Amino acid sequence: MISKQGIIVCLTFEPIVEVSYMQNVKISVLGLGHIGLPTALLFASAGHNVVGIDTDKRKVDLLNSGELPFQEPGLDELFKKAKNNFRATTEVEESDVFLIAVPTPLEERTKAADLRYVKSAAEMIWPHLKKGNLVILESTVPPKTTERILVPILEKSGLKAGEDFYVVHCPERAIPGKTIYEIVHNDRIIGGITPESAEVAKKLYASFVKGNIYLTDATTAEFVKLIENTYRDVNIALVNELAQIAEDYGINIWEAIELANKHPRVNLHKPGPGVGGHCIAIDPWFVIQNSSNGRMISLARYINDTMPNYVLRKVREMLKDIHFPTVTVFGVAYKGNVDDARETPALRFIKLAENDGFKIKVYDPFVKEFEYPLLSLEEAVKDSDCIVVITDHEVFKFLDPEEIGRLMRHKFVFDGRNILDHKKWKKAGFTVKVLGNGKEIL
Ligand code: SAJ
Question: Could you tell me if the CB of 334 is within 6 A of ligand 1?
Fold first, then answer.
């Protein structure tokens, strides 16, 4: 059928109301975080009228005064481009589309999803809900959340989901550091509570998404998002276990992985001091929270969560002759080249090391806020006994070990990411150990 704006809506059934979501639609985005803000700005730059809603008034004021609350490659340019179609506020108002992109943290004690922000976003939306509206949930949630948590709250409006308004789950899949590129170019999965809901949402996302858009039901979309991150977590756990086994055999895991990956159907991940971030360390728990299965998934979580313990054991072995050593942690971001320290394995390493009598100093050229003081490079290495690389920041490759060594009390380095030029550090007088390398560094 053809909508009022002359756009073909390919539906095999009658839509709830005859609308085209292709242009000039009013979209309210609830949650202006690392996904919500870029998504809001992409819709605005595609010509839609976008209202960004956040309960943090400081963030709202900052955005309305033309400033960004955080950095991400390309965000500045996008903000400039989208400015005329975007404004921020703390209150929800009537819209054609409501998009929820709020955090869904893990409740640590129960290992279950904390859905309070999704619930409160839904509570803010329903009083403004009208016939023909579309509600999109982008936040990562356990299977069935759209159907069992979101829909009942929205139906307090007296309207029936799937009959009077559309509801979909469209999980974000963008990687921090490349968020904007990936939101635009990655394929999207849209799960509708009805096929019609998914079709309508596809029309909307097609206004800026360049990847393919695949349609399914809401619960499958929730599950798909979670198993993507679970796949990564389990694969990282596998190489983290292999790294420990390789050391037992006196093998270098990094060399072994490179050779194994020459096989056309093998793609081993990289070992490291643990898995951080707000996704991979959390989503596997959402997969299994309502299932009595999940032994492999929880074992993988255990292996990755205990990698800081393994690193500490190796560091302790290296420093066995030093009383009360001072250790400098290089990198507390959860991964390389980002300023994000959420769920970072560095924090666990630091706490365990402190409990073990180590004095800790921290250096991270990207991170701005952390539980421990962030020092300059010089302060961090001065009188230290050992450097432990936790994060694979590219800049660490270019550090001068001669200069650093002159400031230190003892010259030990443990490379938890295999990123340093080990020969150079060795030449500067350092004893060098690398996670997963059971061979002596020559
Ligand atoms: N890591 C390793 N070894 C590896 C790869 C990663 O130890 O081989 C560690 C990293 O150092 C980091 C953690 O895993 O601590 C996670 O980093 P990541 O780069 O794998 O992923 P995230 O958490 O930044 O983003 C993931 C992405 N998911 C997948 O690649 C399947 C992203 O596409 C998702 O949108 C994001 O989670 C999310 O929001 O769910």
Answer: yes
pLDDT beyond 90 at 21: no
Q: Is 414 exposed, middle or buried (0-12, 13-18, 19+ CB in 10 A)?
A: buried
Which of 20 and 383 is assigned the larger pLDDT? 383
Confidence at 442, pLDDT banded by 50, 70, 90: confident
176 lines ligand 1 (CB under 6 A): yes
113: CA distance to ligand 1 center in Å? Answer: 19
Is the distance from the beta carbon of residue 305 to the nearest atom of ligand 1 less than 6 Å?
no
Identify which of 33, 69, 32, 39 has the alpha carbon closest to the alpha carbon of residue 53.
Answer: 32
Task: Give the pairing of strands 112-113 and 86-89.
Answer: unpaired
**Residue of 59, 202, 203, 225 marked active site:** 225
Q: pTM for this one?
A: 0.91
Q: Give the C-alpha separation, 342 to 298, whole Å.
A: 20
Q: Do 1 and 71 form a contact (C-beta atoms < 8 A)?
A: no
Please indicate whether residue 4 or residue 40 has the higher confidence score (pLDDT). Answer: 40
Name which residue sits closest to atom 37 of ligand 1, judged by CA: 279
Q: What is the pLDDT of residues 88-139, one digit of tens each?
A: 999 999 999 999 999 999 998 999 999 999 999 999 999 999 999 999 999 9
Q: How far apart are CA 30 and CA 170, in angstroms?
A: 14
**134 residue type, one letter:** L
Token output for 122: 């839904």
